[in-house]
Amino acid sequence: MEEFPADRKIIHVDMDAFYASVEQLDNPELRGKPVAVGGGSERGVVSAASYEARKFGVRSAMAGGLARRLCPDLIFVKTRFDRYREISAQIREIFYEYTDLVEPLSLDEAYLDVTENKKGNPSATKIAREIRKKIKEKTGLNASAGISINKFIAKVASDINKPNGQKTIPPEEVISFLEDLDIRKFYGVGKVTAEKMYQLGIFTGADLKQKSQEYLTQHFGKSGNHYYNVVRGIHRSLVKPDRIRKSLGAERTFSENISSEIFMLERLNNIAEEIERRLKKSDVAGKTITLKIKYSDFTLKTRSKTLPYFVRSKDVILETAKELLFQEKMENSVRLLGITLANLNTEEHKQPAKKDSEIAVQLKFEF
User: Fold this and answer.
1) Cis status, amide bond into 170, omega within 30 of 0
2) Is 177 helix (H, G, I), strand (E, B) or coil?
3) What per-residue string of b and e applies to 120-157 under the rule 16 or more CB within 10 Å gives b?
4) pLDDT confidence of 259, banded at 50, 70, 90?
5) Distance separating alpha carbons of residues 71 and 53, to the nearest angstrom
6) Domains in the chain and their CATH numbers?
7) pLDDT at residue 354 in the model
8) What is the pLDDT of residue 106?
9) Structure confidence by residue, pLDDT tens digits, 196-216
10) Residue 53 φ then ψ, to 5°
11) Annotated binding site: which residue ranges?
12) Site (Substrate discrimination): which residue positions (predicted)?
């Protein structure tokens, strides 16, 4: 039998249809009905779907128009991130009652290492059950959980008994569990990779395990090493309570394609305002500004510029994005614009952002 580290007790907690569940919680009239958060326009994108909507095939990241066609009675509601953050903070308080080793992945999911925990409870399964019960009591929302020896298996396990359930994969069952697992259930294997694996005769973990490391790297590059290890229960990534943010950004999909430069600049101004707000709230700044453009034919282009100083001012971000926008001739009308700030000062010593007055002289505003 293969050797793998079996001394960790990792829990992956995942809220059930979080955004949509919050909306149904706050508005009783939505309970039991198909709800989509965001994506209200034909071109908008669904951020989350209730389980009632999922029965019709509605999923997150789906175009609003398609979602409406799949479910004519679908109710669209606007996103309320301040509310989602408020409840997420309440949930994390519960996590910290058990361990300081909490690694949030987003507002609605996190890894917890409870190998050594504040309650002195040797059972990760019981801890997960307690956490889910407390979340329900405190917020009124349901959570699911996966429990196993590493982050990868815990993540996969948390999907098995959704919604409002949990699944434990103890050390002695890890190998058989992974061998029987449909390759589509492997976390990180998307639709395109799954199709490629099917073409190679890989349908289950057992099929994947039959392939050599050389074979997998030949067909999947660096990811091949990952697949070779995880199917053997090997995943050494630690729960990192101080995950460093690599970038921060925002984007907007438009209800109609736009070709007017004035309209594009208006949209970029709104996006830059949102980024400035989030940067100040997180107390970070960055040097590298990337503009994302998706044309009406779905062609995606990105352009970047790295500044010699850390910034978080909307005006500087907007002016740089404007420069990038007009760097090349527009190829078509535009359906999406986005701005991302990377090379943040969280990645090295916390250096202050330049003040507007210090850099305004370097900018020329031509609105």
Assistant:
1) no
2) helix
3) eeeebbebbebbbebbeeebebbbbbbbbbbbbbbbbb
4) confident
5) 7
6) 18-79 (3.40.1170.60), 173-235 (1.10.150.20), 247-362 (3.30.1490.100)
7) 54
8) 87
9) 999 999 999 999 999 999 999
10) -75, -35
11) 14, 108
12) 19
Adjacency order of strands within the sheet including 247-258: 247-258, 334-344, 286-295, 300-311
**Angle, CA 235 vertex, CA 230 and CA 224 arms, to 5°:** 45
Q: Are 27 and 132 in contact (CB under 8 A)?
A: no
Q: Convert the pLDDT of each residue in 273-294 to its tens digit.
A: 999 988 888 788 999 999 999 9
Angle between helices 191-199 and 213-220 (to 10 degrees): 130
Active site residue 109: yes
Q: Which residues are annotated as a binding site for Mg(2+)?
A: 14, 108
Spatial CB neighbours of 362, under 8 Å, sequence gap ≥ 6:
none
Number of residues that this document lists for the chain: 367
Q: Are 42 and 107 in contact (CB under 8 A)?
A: no
Provide the pLDDT confidence category of residue 255 given band limits of 50, 70 and 90: confident
pLDDT at residue 282, as a whole number: 78
Q: For helices 81-96 and 124-139, give the axis angle rounded to 10 degrees.
A: 140
pLDDT tens sequence across 330-358: 878 898 999 999 888 875 444 555 554 44
**In this structure, what is the dihedral angle of CA atoms 53, 57, 63, 65, given to the nearest 10 degrees?**
-80
